[in-house]
Amino acid sequence: MKGVAKLRPGAGQVGLLDAPEPSAVPGHVVIEVTAAGLCGTDVHIYHDEYPCRPPVILGHEVAGKIVDVGSGDSRFRTGSSVTSEPNFALCGTCPFCRAGMLYHCPQRASIGSGVNGAFARYVLVKERSVHLLPDGVDEWSGALTEPLACCVHALENSRVEPGDLAVITGPGAIGLMMLQVVKAAGARAVVIGTETDEARLELARQLGADETLTAGKDDLHELVMERTDGLGADIAFECSGAGPGAQTALDLVRHRGRYVQVGLFGKPVLWDLEQVCVKEVQVQGTFATVASSWRKALALLQSGQLRTAPLISHRLPLEAWQQAFDLFEGREGVKIVFSPE
């Protein structure tokens, strides 16, 4: 089978790789991939800004059907529609594994970076990582469960109260899912983008944003202050993974407010830590997922409180991988999803 892979270390070095089709072994299943989302992490790997073990097939946002199970006592059947957590190899004994914080295991390897991932027709995953898609959730929507669970985990790592005003910087796929998660928690949401984000900001309004603002055009500080009796946002979720977005979010959060870094930068950025001290801002990093965030993400999808399908702007074959990466870096559309054939 062909897969889109990081072929060797160094910037770029991505292309199509011929790889054998995987077979299930005990404790594993093989998924025939229906849809696999292109993530910022894949782009960071392209630029050699995120650790991986080449040659390795990329892709960790996945949904499809089980076609092979590794043992007769598997809890899954062939033909089941599923999604999967990326975790593949873990030590199982470190303090993080014991606490269920699997993404902090020093020996962790995930599909799409440590072992072959979902940008191929088939992917081998750990059975313990697999989730059945609920009734009413199709495989295209289900392929975005992983980034949605990341947003749910960001909420779990912070505190959002009903009626809070939340600022979300970056109206990409993560920002638009974070918006919906925040709204489901009962907060008001202001989404901030740039002048090139008008189509994304319109989608934010369709998905429930109370207001959208444009950096460089609107007076962000004045408008947020007007809506908060001069205090500032209760909480800011920085989803752009860009230095200016991070500074904007910090500027807009109130004294003793909360700041949550959701987006990954891929490199160091300048940030005014003086404000963190003077305003006594509670700063929280958040990374990946935990078991509870997957359960909640799937429940949100099943209930219809959160929609991922409207975010999918492009459905492309694997052979169009270069186009997909170019679209992502050009910030065209919202979510690009591969459909292996």
Task: Describe it.
- Helix 6 links the parallel strand 12 and strand 13 (211-214).
- This protein has helices spanning 40-46, 95-98, 139-142, 145-156, 173-184, 198-206, 220-226, 243-252, 273-278, 291-303, 321-329, and strands at residues 2-6, 14-18, 28-37, 56-57, 61-69, 81-84, 87-89, 109-110, 122-126, 130-132, 165-169, 188-193, 211-214, 233-238, 253-261, 282-285, 312-316, 335-338.
- The longest helix has 13 residues, at 291-303.
- It is of the alpha/beta class and 341 residues long.
- It has two domains: 2-149 and 289-338, Quinone Oxidoreductase, Chain A, domain 1 (Alpha-Beta Complex); 158-285, NAD(P)-binding Rossmann-like Domain (Rossmann fold).
- Strands 3, 5, 6, 9, 10, 17 and 18 form a seven-stranded mixed beta sheet that branches. The protein has a six-stranded parallel beta sheet with strand order 13-12-11-14-15-16, sandwiched between helices.
- Helices cover 27% and strands 27% of the residues.
- Helix 4 packs across helix 5 and helix 4 crosses helix 10.
- The chain is built from eleven helices and 18 strands.
